[in-house]
Amino acid sequence: MTMRTALLAIVLLAVLSVAPAHGADDGNADPWEGFNRAMFTVNDGLDRYVLEPVAKGYDFVVPLPLEQCISNFFKNLRVPLNSLNGLLQGKPVNAASDVGRFTVNTTLGLAGFLDPATYFGLVRHDEDFGPTLGVWGVRNGPYLVIPLLGPSTIRDTGGLAVDSVLTPGWYFLDAAVTIGSRVFDTVNSRALLLDDVERARSASFDFYGFVRNAYLSHRASLLRDDEGSARETDNSLYFLDEPAKK
Fold first, then answer.
1. Is residue 240 part of a domain?
2. Cβ neighbours of 226 (radius 10 Å)
3. How would you write the pLDDT of the chain (246 residues) with one tens digit per residue?
């Protein structure tokens, strides 16, 4: 706990010192492109030769409805953190909607595996501490590709550190269980994205540029509170929506 708190403090200090000075807010979204492309190549290789084959085997065994139920479960676990960030951003209505959504899906939705809240009009809001820092005036800073985790910015990296510390599982579950569940969630999410990632790779002249531009555009839309920007933003090798079906 002490080490994680110290790491959080270091990351936040770096965000506050670096983000106002450089990056997308100054018209240069990717000043570290050489490093980022190298890290993207590493991540892409890990995805192609490790994660994707595992996800294909998983997808062959697990039926699509069950994959979507598992995805619903993990998304439901993140709703309280979404609600907290909504409050910190001055969005009490969205935060209240998320609380209602969590309550309905945890009870009527069988611990979140089902999603009856959507039918009741309780919309999921994608909020994390990255946009919270943005609302508080911290600028984006340079685009950054994090090894294993994927696209980010200096500000979003600080937000990721805070969200990690605020994740309840680290305090109540064994680390092996928490990490194992994270790996399982990643494989399940990647299985849902098999066709989408393949199409994006095939259609993109520069897949690195496609992922970077999609990520930065969506993160900007979160700050603008654009309608339809409530999709789940998870730090993964690629930034793509989970499809409704494959």
1. no
2. 12
3. 555 555 555 555 555 555 555 556 656 789 999 999 999 999 999 999 999 999 999 999 999 999 999 999 999 999 999 999 999 999 999 999 999 999 999 999 999 999 999 999 998 888 899 999 999 988 889 999 999 999 999 999 989 888 888 887 766 777 788 889 999 999 999 999 999 999 999 998 999 999 999 999 988 888 877 544 444 445 456 666 555 444
CA distances for 194 relative to 36, 43, 44, 57, 63, angstroms: 23, 16, 14, 11, 14
Give the count of domains, the chain.
Answer: 1
Angle between helices 194-203 and 175-192 (to 10 degrees): 60
What letter would DSSP give residue 237?
S
CB 187 within 8 A of CB 58: yes
- Give me the half-sphere count of Cα atoms (radius 13 Å) on the Cβ side of residue 12: 15
Range of the domain at 60: 2-224
Cite the DSSP H helix spans in the chain: 2-18, 33-46, 52-61, 64-88, 92-107, 116-119, 129-135, 154-166, 169-172, 175-192, 194-203, 207-224
- Whether residue 234 is contained in a domain is answered as no
| Whole-prediction pTM | 0.84
Is residue 37 included in any domain, yes or no?
yes
Q: Which amino acid is at 36?
A: N
